[in-house]
Specification:
Layout: H1 11-14, E1 24-28, H2 33-44, E2 48-53, H3 56-62, H4 64-70, E3 75-80, H5 86-99, E4 103-108, H6 126-142, E5 146-155, H7 179-201, E6 207-212, E7 215-216, H8 228-242, E8 250-251, H9 253-266, H10 269-272, E9 276-278, E10 281-282, H11 305-319
């Protein structure tokens, strides 16, 4: 099904000929970039999409094209969700549960990258608290709304290759903070969460996976300064040239959102369940520092089921809430 999909595939390529009428989807982070394009593509093909965003006014301004697409058959609505505040997370989840309408697909798209050292409203390191713990509580709380046979897609990154989670010191209380190390930990956590969520909900036919969207010039780079993206491109391309490889690719937003959409509605559920996907394919395990087939691959520690269980238990301890199987 994905034989002809690659790093250049767009959301429209993935959804060509696909009718999503009657499918209900939740997407976090719809105030810019990938979240907006993901919502637009799904709505344009008939889906009813609920977009979650911290800043509703910003999201309203950013999603005009999504609302335009809704005129063709799908629908779009916004809910307020600040993943850096568990009070906001729980309030949003409670509203959705009270509403009672189920979802066929949940896409955990929101996130921050390479932030200065700081803390969420609940005292967690900003990237781990926002990218992982906020989604952990929110998605677990709305899990009863995911229909049997539904899916969860968590946006991770090839950045997970920069480091495993530190279960003993997730908030850098003893270790020295590094903005990229913290990002890597949070993105590994996104994969491990998907692995364990998949195991826990597989009996209902619900499958979960994590995806790497690729490098896209979105607001995610805002903490790196005006030339942040350009500097990363220059550094990576120099490294690629030294290895005799072609330059790295900065994707368009439509190309970046393609893997989320592919994993959520097009790929066979059993093929992606518990996996890490990139460029509209299931990624190969790659523990070396070499690229595989033009892609980065996934580190084995990110797919380790025992590591996933341990992170789940530690996350429950941190947020002081348990989510039984």
């Amino acid at each position: 099904m994905s034989a002809n999909f690659n790093e250049l595939t767009t959301t429209e390529d993935v959804l060509s000929g696909v009718d999503l009428a009657g499918r209900r989807v939740l997407v976090t982070g719809v105030s810019s970039g990938l979240g907006v394009e993901t919502a637009r593509a799904l709505v344009a093909h008939g889906a009813d999409v609920v977009g979650a965003a911290r800043d509703i006014a910003k999201a309203e301004a950013a999603t005009g094209e999504v609302r335009g697409a809704a005129e063709q058959g799908g629908s779009f609505e916004l809910v307020e969700l600040d993943l850096a505040s568990l009070a906001s997370v729980r309030a949003c989840a409670d509203r959705l549960i009270a509403d009672g309408r189920p979802f066929d697909l949940v896409i955990g798209n929101a996130g921050v990258m390479a932030t200065p050292f700081g803390h969420t409203a609940d005292g967690f390191e900003t990237q781990f608290g926002t990218n992982h713990l906020g989604h952990f509580v929110f998605i677990n709380r709305i899990a009863p709304l995911i229909r049997d046979g539904g899916r969860l897609v968590m946006l991770s990154s090839s950045g997970h290759r920069g480091g495993d989670v530190d279960i003993e010191d997730p908030n850098y209380e003893t270790g020295k903070y590094n903005q990229w190390g913290a990002y890597a930990r949070s993105k590994t956590a996104n994969v491990l969460f998907a692995v364990e969520f998949d195991r826990r909900h597989r009996a209902r036919g619900i499958r979960a996976c994590a995806v790497h969207p690729g490098r896209i010039g979105t607001g995610l780079f805002r903490h790196l300064g005006e030339d942040g993206l350009a500097n990363i491109e220059k550094t990576m391309d120099k490294s690629m040239a030294e290895k005799g490889l072609p330059p790295s690719l900065t994707k368009s937003v439509a190309q970046g959102a393609a893997t989320s959409v592919w994993a959520g509605v097009v790929a066979p559920a059993d093929a992606v369940g518990g996996q890490f996907c990139e460029d509209c394919h299931v990624a190969e395990v790659n523990d070396s520092n070499q690229r595989t087939g033009g892609a980065n691959g996934v580190k084995s520690y990110a797919l380790d089921p025992e590591r996933a269980k341990a992170l789940w238990a530690r996350s429950e301890q941190l947020v002081r809430e348990r989510f039984p199987e």
